[in-house]
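// run 5 | inverse folding | seed 20
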């Protein structure tokens, strides 16, 4: 299992594979179905499985350009951050992930140049699987019809994956975002094939929660927009950077958003642990630097701006009581 960052880092040992291309945000059931088809052909050809992804995702890139000009934030919420996405791809049996920086140079490539530089000369793909809505190239001329001609020209196999549906509705990253935004976590788990969670390193924050008697673990989000916001009952799992393994699931309450009452700007995820850290074998101040996976169980309320710290503290106390009732904590 390996990650290759950029076409320029492709080497001879990376060549000769079966591959697919896309954002794979969420690595949802539709993505998993595509990967299963890819693995089947890889086994038949005795070749490794490669998935080609982009950072940032193309729509994020174009939205940021537009948003800077008009002071907006229209970028889609990111379901899975890069590390979580790669880990899930590897767990599905992918052998190598090729991550392309989506920038001016990449966006300017024609469909023909993209195929020649990456699919043919870069990876020497023997079989390519794409989704039925895949488009690429600076003029978006790279579709399945174009790839059919390219496969005949360059001598690689090509197959197309039909839409994957759930309850007669297409499973897509867009639909998953809509479901998460509505806090329908059971349905999100059905679409994703895994319980929705956000993971990140616990870093030092402004420590305002500690000042009002509600200490929180500040989970680093790297300024990526999440597909949901508000206050939630969550379960947090601590994974040490030095050790393999995880803590038991810890009941908690979390705020995901920009904290408008204290003039926040960047998105943040702050988690107040309700369970005993000592019972989980964790020292009280030993969360910094560790990775925290936060599973969302129930939405308590929307994020809002309160009239001062006292009103905010009263709301947090009510949030804690609601979360405790959800988890049946006395």
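// decoded
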């Amino acid at each position: 299992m390996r990650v290759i960052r950029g076409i320029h880092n492709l080497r001879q040992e990376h060549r000769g594979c079966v591959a697919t291309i896309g954002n794979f945000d969420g690595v949802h059931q539709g993505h998993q179905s595509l990967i299963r088809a890819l693995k089947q052909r890889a086994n038949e050809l005795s070749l490794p499985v490669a998935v080609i992804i982009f950072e940032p995702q193309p729509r994020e890139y174009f939205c940021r350009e537009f948003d800077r000009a008009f002071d907006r934030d229209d970028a889609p919420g990111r379901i899975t951050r890069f590390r979580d996405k790669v880990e899930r791809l590897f767990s599905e049996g992918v052998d190598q992930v090729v991550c392309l920086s989506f920038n001016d140079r990449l966006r300017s490539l024609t469909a023909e140049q993209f195929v020649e530089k990456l699919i043919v000369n870069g990876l020497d793909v023997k079989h390519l699987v794409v989704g039925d809505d895949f488009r690429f190239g600076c003029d978006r001329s790279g579709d399945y019809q174009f790839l059919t001609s390219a496969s005949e020209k360059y001598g690689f196999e090509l197959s197309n994956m039909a839409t994957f549906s759930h309850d007669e509705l297409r499973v897509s990253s867009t639909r998953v975002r809509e479901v998460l935004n509505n806090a329908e976590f059971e349905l999100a788990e059905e679409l994703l094939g895994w319980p929705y969670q956000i993971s990140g390193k616990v870093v030092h924050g402004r420590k305002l929660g500690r000042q009002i008697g509600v200490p929180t673990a500040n989970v680093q989000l790297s300024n990526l927009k999440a597909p949901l916001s508000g206050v939630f009952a969550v379960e947090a799992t601590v994974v040490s950077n030095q050790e393999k393994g995880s803590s038991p699931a810890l009941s908690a309450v979390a705020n995901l958003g920009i904290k408008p009452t204290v003039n926040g700007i960047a998105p943040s995820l702050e988690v107040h642990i309700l369970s005993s850290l000592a019972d989980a074998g964790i020292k009280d101040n030993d969360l910094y630097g560790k990775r925290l996976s936060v599973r969302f169980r129930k939405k308590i309320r929307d994020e809002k701006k309160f009239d001062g710290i006292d009103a905010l503290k009263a709301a947090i106390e009510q949030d804690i009581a609601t979360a405790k009732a959800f988890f049946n904590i006395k």
